[in-house]
């Protein structure tokens, strides 16, 4: 079973243990502002393979490579002027940019799924400090079994992967609660490959280019989170409900009234006051609570499709998609 270290009370020991573990090619579960990540040396084939094996993740699904700062990022990727402007405005933070990989980058092709582009993010807080101390980028998808609900607290990681990991760093609940926004600047526009913790309207405001969405869910996999079925709990998921059946779990937003709510196995409200930021922070933790209630299905009321609501709805649509 994994050793768990609290980074608030034992920050230096956490850094030392994490650097030692990463240097041996082992993955480390660590908190970021978005979700908990399963981090390993992005320049090592063995380390990246351990990520895929631990998660049961398809190797055609590329990994985001996390950097300590913009300077480290520029050593591995080519920045156009708009991408650099976005990085300067929103890093560290919940934005991943898809960029051309430099020919001399040490990032291993396993991390990019063989693509000539790389997804790069600079995380805030402890994760960024760890990368700076380690001195190399970390590939870090969410610290959960592939396709399942992302973890936003350390105990979520323990329950899912605790017997497969050597070290889990506990940083409390993630403040953003959904994965990063993924964007790619090309052809005079900003392509939104995955809505996430940064409002797409902010990209448009700073980049001064239109933001366009993928035409269909069948798009080529250029970045994490683009699989049609993803973020799925054990129970089936229904969305935009106004009525539920006995034995279902109910997750509502803004105190929505739902017929049959009194017969739900559990009733949770992502944000009673209708705050999308609060709803995003609670999303994955509430899905896990609902799933643990033994519900036959998890029913969600409608979420406004604006601001962070776009990211929430993206996750719910993928969770509700038919599963293989």
TrEMBL record:
Residues that, per the record, bind ATP: 57, 61, 117, 150, 194, 231
Keyword Nucleotide-binding part of the UniProt annotation: yes
Positions of L-threonine binding: 34, 66, 121, 140, 142, 180
GO molecular function annotation: ATP binding; double-stranded RNA binding; L-threonylcarbamoyladenylate synthase; tRNA binding
UniProt KW keywords: ATP-binding, Cytoplasm, Nucleotide-binding, Nucleotidyltransferase, Transferase, tRNA processing
Main localization, broad class: cytoplasm
Residue ranges annotated for the YrdC-like domain, each copy included: 12-198
Gene Ontology terms: cellular component: cytoplasm
Reactions accelerated catalytically: L-threonine + hydrogencarbonate + ATP = L-threonylcarbamoyladenylate + diphosphate + H2O
Signal peptide: none
Enzyme Commission identifier(s): 2.7.7.87
GO biological process, one term: regulation of translational fidelity
Localization: Cytoplasm
Family affiliation: Belongs to the SUA5 family.
Function: Required for the formation of a threonylcarbamoyl group on adenosine at position 37 (t(6)A37) in tRNAs that read codons beginning with adenine.
Listed name of the protein: Threonylcarbamoyl-AMP synthase
The species this protein was found in: Ferirhizobium litorale
């Amino acid at each position: 079973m994994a050793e768990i270290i609290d980074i608030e009370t034992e920050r230096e020991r956490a850094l030392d243990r994490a650097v030692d573990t990463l240097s041996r090619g082992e993955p480390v579960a660590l908190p970021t502002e978005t979700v908990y990540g399963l981090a390993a040396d992005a320049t090592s084939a063995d380390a990246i393979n351990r990520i895929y094996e631990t998660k049961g993740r398809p190797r055609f699904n590329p990994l985001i490579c996390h950097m300590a700062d913009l300077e480290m990022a520029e050593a591995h990727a080519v920045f156009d002027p708009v991408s650099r402007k976005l990085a300067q405005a929103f890093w560290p933070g919940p934005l991943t940019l898809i960029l051309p990989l430099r020919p001399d980058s040490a990032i291993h092709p396993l991390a990019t799924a063989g693509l000539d582009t790389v997804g790069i993010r600079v995380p805030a807080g402890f994760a960024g400090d760890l990368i700076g101390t380690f001195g190399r980028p970390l590939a870090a998808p969410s610290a959960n079994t592939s396709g399942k609900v992302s973890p936003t607290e350390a105990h979520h990681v323990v329950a899912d992967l605790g017997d497969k990991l050597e070290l889990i760093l506990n940083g409390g609940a993630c403040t953003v609660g959904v994965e990063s926004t993924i964007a790619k600047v090309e052809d005079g526009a900003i392509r939104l490959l995955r809505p996430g913790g940064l409002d797409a309207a902010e990209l448009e405001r700073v980049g001064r280019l239109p933001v366009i969405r993928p035409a269909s869910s069948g798009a080529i996999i250029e970045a994490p989170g683009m699989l049609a079925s993803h973020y799925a709990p054990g129970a089936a998921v229904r969305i935009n409900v106004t009525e539920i059946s006995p034995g279902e779990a109910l997750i509502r937003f803004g105190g929505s009234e739902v017929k049959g709510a009194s017969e739900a196995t559990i009733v949770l409200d992502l944000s009673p006051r209708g705050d999308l930021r609060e709803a995003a922070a609670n999303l994955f933790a509430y899905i896990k609570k609902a799933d643990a209630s033994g519900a036959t299905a998890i029913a969600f009321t409608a979420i406004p499709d604006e601001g962070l609501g776009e990211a929430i709805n993206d996750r719910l649509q993928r969770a509700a998609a038919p599963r293989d």
